[in-house]
User: Fold this.
Amino acid sequence: MSTVFGVPLPAILGQLTLGLVNGSFYALLSLGLAVIFGLLGIVNFAHGAFYMLGAFAAYIGLQAFGMNYWAALVLAPLAVALLGVVVELLFLRRLYRLDPIYGLLLTFGIALIAEGIMRDRFGASGKSYPVPHLLQGVFDLGFMVLPIYRAWVVAASLTVCAVTWFLIERTRLGATLRAATENPRLLQAFGINVPLLVTATYGAGVGLAALAGVLAAPVVQVSPLMGSSLVIVVFAVVVIGGMGSIIGAIVTGLLLGLIEGLTKVVYPEASNIVVFVIMALVLIWRPAGLFGGE
Amino acid sequence: MKFGSWALGSWALGSLSAALCTLLGASVSPAHAAADQVVIGDIDDLSGVYADVQGQGGVEAIRMAIADFGGTVLGRKIEVLSADHQNKPDIGASKFREWADQNGLNMLIGGSNTGVSIAMAKVAAAKKVPFIAIGAGGASLTGADCTPYSIHYAYDTTALANGTASVIVNSGGKTWYFVTADYAFGSQLQDAATRVVTANGGKILGSVRVPLGTTDFSSFLLQAQASGAQVLGLANAGTDFSNSLKAAGEFGITKTMKPVALLAFLSDIHSLTLQTAQGLYLTTGWYWDLNPQTRAFAKRFFAKINKEPTETQAAYYSATLQYLKAVKAVGSTDADRVMAELKRAKIDDMFTADGSVRADGLMVHPMYIMQVKTPAESKYPWDYYRVIKVMSGEDAYGREPDPSCPFIKK
Assistant:
């Protein structure tokens, strides 16, 4: 059997595939963060909490209303996005003129409150969400078996990433959004409702987080802390990619998933710090991130 | 040491929630408890990955024991303090020190997390305050890390390995691969299980150490599968355990390997559901549905918390009661006299009919090897376990005190 650095090739291929799965989660999550930071300048520390709420919304929907996975995929992100809109209208709106640290602290507080409430209601060990019927089973790739659900996660995340990138970078709506961040007053003078645009953008970013939560629900324990363990990695992804860069978030998310996957074979104990080592190196070499403008 | 996402995230979350706890007075601190009180403290994971194992339910169990004891001992009112150690040794130790110095703490129960419990045991020795560890697994608490003021209740890594690992290896599971939580508890559990497996003619084909709080276990499980081992030994706990077992099912690992829970609590099985957990073997010190006494306690507990008690929540109750009985027996809260009484007295209550505290501080009592029922076998809510075997305290923990405990006379 051929080997690379003493590791059998099938094992490497297997880990790369899994890295791709995790990378697509990172990409989807960091995409939402990048949209919110790039367009609103808010460091959304509540992103992990919204991801968690997305997963719980799916769980609650199933338990209370018998809502199936496919419905949850649409309705749960909408519900959580609505919550995001409320947060923006009531709180974040007041902070745009202030130092970004205020937004960070506010969203951090919201994350703690959300986690506390869910822990009180559902307990720390979390809940199980079943894999939808249609996506049960595995693909045999020869070098490994890949659960159909994981393949679906990759496909779904990449599609959503591509659509979001296209919307923001290539359409008139995206151009308007970018203009709103560059010069809101001028845009307002053209008769465009900038505050509404900002609210909708925050809601959309939050919705993306919740969508990632629904996608994750069947494969990880739906628990109040599921977001806080992920949000820091995702922040690192966004920093490496370049704060606010959409394409940077997507590419870096996938890349870091792959690197992390390889680390899990070579030196498992380091698998949860490798992202931060890379972040440190990138910040030394390119402080604006891989895709960030100066 | 813990690094990375989990540690960084909880570092930030932890510092803020610690500040909040202080502000909100999460610990009900009677300023300078006077000699007219007996103060019992509980420092546990109240908000993190192990918060369902005891958490608020543990505090409630202590209160139930105090109420059953009559609310006073030696004519003094019994107070309860509680705090969240957030799985951080420094927080646990400094809270313990603060209570000992300022709040007249007479006894501390320390819950979950071996790393934190080892740090708190050192404070117990320095401050001469009896410390009962419940929920931490590490057998070193009554071995290399033992102190004259420590007691280890409910279960330890040695008993878990002597239970589950021996049953599996003797029923044909000869080759093992471990997925291990990368901190004190995980490595002690793996070491204990390794000793049992090799002593019974089995073989360890490999192991992987996984950072605490990892959510995606698939890579590690593929490595386990590639080893060709028959048994997948999960030397982890809480959500780590749940997530690894779920992924093992998802990736079809369970078709070729037999997953073994080296530590699983009732709360884990409840959150995993029987569908995922069925057939699993595990070892526990107590189960709510063992006999009329356990069921009676469980019923009262359920009425308050709306969950059946875990083995360690029951142990919280039992340990509090034992402590109060000892105080009453010696007529004093003097730490040395109470410790001597605790090590002398037999334990016969709803937790165990045959318990005693060994010289090194280990509470020896029978352990139960269980198998998780299938959904069809489960007849009523929380009907999760079937007793496979009852191990005597001696079989589970060994007869002699741990020779690595420094104060045990060789």
Observations:
- The mean pLDDT of chain A is 91.
- The longest helix of chain A spans residues 9-40.
- The longest strand of chain A covers residues 138-140.
